[in-house]
Amino acid sequence: MRLIDTKVWSWYPQAFNGVTVDVSDADLADVQWNSNNSTVIVRDSKAYIAVAKENVTYRFIDSLIEGDVSARDNSTIYLENTNVRGKINVYGNGRVFIDGEPYTGS
């Protein structure tokens, strides 16, 4: 699906079963309802929160996350030139990378 010249306020992408969703120039309510080896790529956008779980990969590029970022359940979040205004949380086997470097909690 490709939306062109469309105005939608605060929506959220969903990816399941190995699907990749690539979003650009969007105002997202949250990025959290994805699972089962899927990938969500967010470019030049704003999201309220980002919660990765169940073997999901998120890649935020040139974006803003207003709230918290959380990675758990063998999921990975890549933050590339992305500002996080909330906390970054890593649980269990979750991983977060900031501009290519592993987040260590400090």
Low-confidence stretches: none
**What's the number of helices?**
0
Q: So what's the overall shape?
A: globular
Distance between the termini: 40 Å
Number of domains: 1
Mean pLDDT: 90
Would you tell me the structural class of the helices and strands? mainly beta
Query: What is the share of helical residues?
Result: under 10%
> Main sheet, how many strands, which sense, barrel?
6 strands, mixed
Q: What strand line-up does the widest sheet have?
A: 1-3-6-9-12-13
Order of helices and strands: EEEEEEEEEEEEE
- Beta-strand residue fraction: 35-45%
Question: Cα-atom Rg, whole angstroms?
Answer: 13 Å
Strand tally is 13
What does this structure look like?
- This protein has strands at 20-24, 27-28, 39-43, 46-47, 50-52, 57-61, 64-65, 69-71, 76-80, 83-84, 88-90, 95-98, 101-102.
- The chain has 106 residues and is an all-beta fold.
- It has one domain.
- A 6-stranded mixed β-sheet has the order 1-3-6-9-12-13, with no helix packed on it.
What descriptive keywords fit this protein?
mainly beta
What's this entry about, in short?
This protein has strands at residues 20-24, 27-28, 39-43, 46-47, 50-52, 57-61, 64-65, 69-71, 76-80, 83-84, 88-90, 95-98, 101-102.
Question: What's the structural blueprint in terms of helices and strands?
Answer:
Layout (H helix, E strand, L loop, with lengths): L19 E5 L2 E2 L10 E5 L2 E2 L2 E3 L4 E5 L2 E2 L3 E3 L4 E5 L2 E2 L3 E3 L4 E4 L2 E2 L4
Parallel strand pairs: 1-3, 2-4, 3-6, 4-7, 5-8, 6-9, 7-10, 8-11, 9-12
Antiparallel strand pairs: 12-13
